[in-house]
Amino acid sequence: MREGEGSEAREWALILGASSGTGAAIAEAVTRKPGLNVFGVHRGRYAEGAVQLEQRIRDAGGRGVLWQADASSPEAAEAGVAALREVAGPRSVKLFVHSIAGASVGRFLSEGEDRLHARRIRRTFDTMAHSFVFWVQALVNEDMLAPEARLLGLQNPLDETHLGNTGLISASKAALEMYVRYLAMELGPRGHRVNLLKFGTVMTPALKHVYSPGALARLEAAHARMNPAGRMGTVEDVARFVTVLAGEEAGWFNGATIDFTGGMTLRLLDLVLNP
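The structure assignment produced for this chain is given below.
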């Protein structure tokens, strides 16, 4: 089905961080099931990927609109939701996924360049945590949530362990988890559901940009040892499960942090003591 042949009647998914990685995989998956149009927000780092994603969404029978902006501020949230309303109309957003990243790594007490100073702290919390609230507020203010809408933040297992230089990421994700719980309480009586999906390392363009091929090979080997399944998770694994969370079967999840790590942390102590 091509754009215009039934896609206008669909409800919409709003996905922050949609042009690559997990966000792009989710956008493509929910176009097919449960059959949503996609309004994706991206920073423009993967502009070609955004164009390709729009085409894949059309090929799947939906309508894709990719909007370039830094999604971390309340002003961006207001502008983005206004643009979405022009395209989709009120009460049209069935699924909202917060998949943007932009964290600083380093140490709080370092005297070097990796010191986590105030600007880095504010930027990380705005991107990784506060922006979730900004966009939910804008969606509610503009009456954009469809009946029984699903709102989803993404989490990682860093809240369960210590990984050097990632304290700011862990702290911002902890804030996101609290936002999810409190918004679940506020939106629950309106019929909406707010949850947090926790999953482990997946291979993304951002990860490939940070690590060398050799480091990536070591990373995959380490995850193959940690995960009971013997492999690293994939963005497709995550995307398929999001389609489940968007369906009626998952309607009783609310305020939950859903463990989708595949048991990634179960063997950590064993790996240390029995290498």
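Interim note for the steering committee: Residues 56 and 160 are 36 Å apart (CA to CA). The mean pLDDT is 93.
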